[in-house]
Amino acid sequence: MSPRPFFMKAVKRIDNDVENGKLEIKEKSKRNNMLVTVQNKALLSGIAYCISSCSMILVNKYVLSSYNFNAGISLMLYQNFVSVVVVSILSFSGVISTEPLTLRMIKVWLPVNVIFVGMLISSMFSLKYLNVAMVTVLKNVTNVITAVGEMYIFNKHHDSRVWTALLLMIVSAVSGGITDLTFHATGYTWQIINCFLTASYSLTLRRIMNTAKQVTKSGNLDEFSMVLLNNTLSLPLGLLLVLLFNEVDYLSTTPLLQLPTFWIVITLSGFLGLTISFTSMWFLHQTSATTYSLVGSLNKIPLSVAGIFLFNVPTSLDNTASIFFGLLAGVFFAQAKMQEKSQS
Question: 69, 46, 44, 49: which is closest to 59 by C-alpha?
């Protein structure tokens, strides 16, 4: 019997093994490339969110304090109007595509939009009365509320290290308030309200995004569509609040509206508002609500330092220590979350 058939079979097996090996290598390479792409998107969106978030807070503080502008709701309304105009121009010119606003879409999105407006307004009022460093430390309370919300809403459990970090954040917030030389009860009240609304926004947005996709014509809802939807719906609600808080009388008498430099600054804040709306939704799309809140903790460190030096905030050794203790608690929280995620 000729050995040729056995030889041919052996060669065919070797060829098959080689081909299978190449396919496995290609599949592994493809999976690795996809993983790197996902990680790069998450990293890029996180960096963009941090830069826009820090810039927005500093510019808003400058407008409200340095210019002594006493119409925070009107400032929010103008910023959102700028965002709507810019996104609409880009959409009509064909640079971007956005989903049309339908009645079904508005009904689905309205709850998260009400929270969005409340979050922006409470942030404006807290910045009016508090220094940037204390605002950033008090924002750590948002992480606590978000973690509790994820536990009850999404059945997500956190380990002891995460809860320890969250406890440290609460301690730093309390000690920071006690030692704050510029303590203002109204500002602290607005900031606590802002913490609850910010946590509610990140938790609700994650759920609403999935529901909203189902009522779109394309079955998809990108960041620009969400920015346009959010800011457009905020305009009538913001206008109503301007009337209720009687900011019209102030706007009709303030000389600030006659200053070109003031209009340049608030228009810049409008562009930053668009940027933070886009980057926050983009980042939340790439990660989870807790990671979104976690990265917000880390960018508080440069923001707090910049706020103290830029606005010449009077502070004491005890207050400075409590601020940096709170910032370190945020870093510890970030580490704990990363370790928790790697073990899950």
Answer: 69
Give the per-residue pLDDT at 36.
Answer: 45
Position 45 scores a pLDDT of: 76
> Which tokens go with 6?
């056995």
Q: In angstroms, rounded to a whole number, what is the distance separating the alpha carbons of residues 184 and 180? A: 9
pLDDT in tens, 115-129: 989 998 998 888 888
Asked whether the whole model's pTM tops 0.85, one would answer no
Give the distance between the most distant pair of CA atoms in the chain: 108
Query: What's the CA gap between 80 and 269, in Å, rounded?
Result: 10
- Say which amino acid occupies 48: A
Give a three-class secondary structure readout of the chain: CCCHHHHHHHHHHHHHHHHHHHHHHHHHHHHHHHHHHHHHHHHHHHHHHHHHHHHHHHHHHHHHHHCCCCCHHHHHHHHHHHHHHHHHHHHHCCCCCCCCCCHHHHHHHHHHHHHHHHHHHHHHHHHHHCCHHHHHHHCHHHHHHHHHHHHHHCCCCCCHHHHHHHHHHHHHHHHHHHCCCCCCHHHHHHHHHHHHHHHHHHHHHHHHHHHHHCCCCCCCCCHHHHHHHHHHHHHHHHHHHHHHCCHHHHHHHCHHHHCHHHHHHHHHHHHHHHHHHHHHHHHHHHCCHHHHHHHHHHCHHHHHHHHHHHCCCCCCHHHHHHHHHHHHHHHHHHHHHHHHHHHC
* Amino acid (one-letter) located at 93: S
Q: How far is CA 310 from CA 56, 62, 132, 299, in A?
A: 14, 9, 10, 17
pLDDT tens-place string over residues 143-197: 788 888 888 777 777 777 777 777 777 777 777 666 666 777 888 899 899 999 9
Instruction: Please say whether the beta carbons of 311 and 132 come within 8 A.
Output: yes
Q: Which residues of the chain have pLDDT under 50?
A: 7, 11, 26, 28, 30, 32-36, 38
Residue written as token pair 């200053």: 259
Query: How far is the C-alpha of 79 from the C-alpha of 60, rounded, in Å?
Result: 10
